[in-house]
Amino acid sequence: MAEDDTMVDHLKSFFDATDKLKLTDTNLDDDLLAIMLLQSLPASYENFRCAIESRDSLPGPRNPQNKSARRIQISS
Question: Which of 8, 15, 44, 75 is deepest in the core (most CB within 10 A)?
Answer without folding.
Answer: 15
